[in-house]
Design goal:
mainly beta; eight-stranded antiparallel beta barrel
Length: 164
């Protein structure tokens, strides 16, 4: 009986330690990006290959505050990190809704980026950097357009994440 108690205690301790070293599935995110602006939200990782996220953002613009609501999905690719045993390279697809837009065609963007999760020493926290393009209709005249004929603008994001 005593041996069973010691074994149970060891398994419990090992289980607690494994949970502490786990990267975490649900994360709080805080970042700066185009088109998501200064944003905060939540993401949830499903397995090793897929993550869904939601965030809300805001940024200053000529005498007003520009707001955004963002949805995203990440498809993780490549080999798992030795540190976290999860993949860190991803292809992100998303959409941003701008409630403040005055023209109905400029309410939604489509975002496509590639990026990487950089783990901090505490693997439950880190930094995400991704780069790509976003499509916003009727913006041919904007100064930051990459390809004016198809309304593609550069997308760049720096986002900190903290596991809950």
């Amino acid at each position: 009986m005593k041996q069973a108690m010691v074994l149970l205690a060891l398994f419990s301790f090992t289980d607690l330690f494994a949970q502490e070293a786990s990267p975490g599935k649900t994360r709080f995110v805080l970042g700066l990006s185009g088109p998501e602006l200064f944003h905060a939200g939540l993401t949830h990782r499903i397995g090793d290959f897929s993550q869904f996220g939601f965030s809300a953002g805001a940024g200053p613009s000529w005498g007003m505050i520009w707001t955004s609501i963002n949805l995203e999905h990440r498809l993780y690719l490549g080999k798992p990190s030795e540190k976290s045993n999860q993949k860190t390279y991803f292809f992100r697809q998303g959409s941003t809704f701008f409630p403040s837009a005055t023209e109905s065609s400029r309410h939604f963007t489509v975002n496509l980026t590639v990026g990487k999760d950089f783990l901090f020493s505490k693997i439950r926290n880190g930094l995400t950097v991704d780069v790509g393009v976003f499509y916003l209709p009727d913006t041919e005249e904007a100064s930051i357009m990459l390809i004016r004929s198809v309304n593609l603008a550069p997308a760049l994001r720096f986002q900190f994440y903290f596991s809950l």
